[in-house]
Amino acid sequence: KAKYQVHVGKSFEHEEGKPPLQPPERALYEAIDFAEQGQIPVCIDDRLVRRHSTIAKAPLCDTWDILHHLQGGGKITDEAFRDARSRMRAANLRYLPVSTEEILSCVCSAPIQNGELQETPELVCLRRYVAATLLDHKTLQNSIRDQEGNVHPREAIWPARLQAAITKALADVWLNSSPTNNHAQLQADWIWANLCFDERLP
Fold it and tell me: What is the pTM for the complete model shown?
């Protein structure tokens, strides 16, 4: 019988008459068990688990972290990185960080035809992801205060970081603009119309 050190202070075993663990449950329990036995990073794509930074002494990471680690280390191409990032957003994985670099990369690579910026699939994906995630604010994990009085922002910091990234992208579009065309105006208009939001709204 597989044993799991999960939540309770004793081993968990499958009991007679109860349905067996489903593969996702078993994989999660085994990952937690593995983490408790050492200091090797463990990848778990579960938001409720990832609100913690470690399990015992083992660092926690997820697929998003691994993707950026591979790109930062030159193990995958920029094209492969952008494709994987877009697919994760298209899958509506919740509260993935949106960076200024990503916004600028998407908007600056969009073609401009007949005086209008043409939405690329990457821009459509980004626009829909930001909107869907902001509308789903009720599932966001709010900040908590621990017994020592320390505040842990958890996912509550996500809207503020998103707002900061969008604001900087608007400024950088104009800083990098060319006086010979109106591309910056069109790019800034797209960011303003499709990504900007009032953080005071619920």
Answer: 0.76
The rounded distance, in Å, linking the Cα atoms of 59 and 149 is 23
Helix residue ranges, H only, 109-157? 121-135
16 has pLDDT over 60: yes
> Alpha-carbon distance 31 to 132, whole Å?
30
Nearest to 106 by CA among 19, 191, 2: 191
Q: What is the per-residue pLDDT across 66-122, written as a single tens digit (0 to 9) for each?
A: 999 999 999 999 999 999 999 999 998 888 999 999 999 999 999 999 989 999 999
In the chain, count of helices (H) and strands (E)? Answer: 8, 7
Question: Which is nearest to 62 in space by CA: 87, 83, 93, 90?
Answer: 93
Are 52 and 41 a contacting pair, CB within 8 Å?
Answer: no
